Amino acid sequence: PIWPPSTSRTLWCDASGSTGWGAQLCWGAEQRIASGYWKAGPEMDLHITHKELKTLRLSLTSLLDSVRGQHILLWEDNMPVVHIVMNGTSRSPALMTELRQLWSFLALHNITLSPRYIRSSDNPADYWSRWRDRSAWQLLPSLASLLQRRFGMTCTLDAFACRATALLSRYCSAGPDPGAWRYDAFTVPWQEELLWINPPWELLPRVLFKLRSERARAIIIVPRWPSQSWWPTLLTMMVDEVELLPPWTIVSPAHDCVVEPLLYPSLILLAVLVDGRLTS
Q1: Are 257 and 132 in contact (CB under 8 A)?
Q2: Residue 63 phi/psi, 5° resolution?
Q3: Strands 238-243 and 269-275
Q4: Residue 118 has what pLDDT?
Q5: What is the dihedral of CA 122, 124, 125, 127, to 10 degrees?
Q6: What does pTM read for this prediction?
Q7: Comparing C-alpha atoms, which of 109, 235, 131 is closest to residue 270?
Q8: How many angstroms from the chain centroid is the CA of residue 52?
Q9: Cα(246)–Cα(136) distance, rounded to whole angstroms?
Q10: Cβ atoms of residues 80 and 58 within 8 Å
Q11: Strand (E) or helix (H) holding 49
């Protein structure tokens, strides 16, 4: 057509060099947010332009239910990315590889983009790319594998994770996440799963209630905190426990701010094998 079609969605994207990525999608009175952290290693070391381009694909994947078949007005605060998406090419082999993945995704889901430049100070996605959650951490993967062998249980679902902290390929995230099996672990059945549970601590009462209600089995990572209201419930379902090494030696944060286990110098973490079928 001579004139481009009208856009049906507006998407703002942003990448933070040291933290993660974020996106805000709007149409009418509706709004969706997606964000995440860079994985430690090669992804964290990518050039910022590569991260900005990758953010676009991660954001669209996370928000797929809301963008499939849509023509999207894209606001991006990295001018090279605006040019790359508009022109469909780059001199960088790494960026071309990323761009081809983006084009394949767009073609598969019938999505079109109209990119525009926006200043960083005017980009609402900038907030989400720098968002740091105190519960975004994982145990060292080698320790998680050791604990599963110790308890004789091979977990099938990491119930509270994100793309950067998941210890299993099958995981649930708190919100839109490009790699998650499902969003919100409380909305999926637990009876048939062998769960790895490392939840935000404020959710522990709900977690223990669901474990008991659905008679589910899990390895759960908790602080030794006998004064908490959920502690007696945990004891009634406990099959076995392992006291872990000091948190600073075994905890891997998803970002550069302090996470829950590192807030308290004397805190002790436990790995607990629980069975919701037990009543005492």
Answers
A1: yes
A2: -105, 25
A3: antiparallel
A4: 97
A5: 100
A6: 0.90
A7: 235
A8: 17
A9: 18
A10: no
A11: helix 48-62
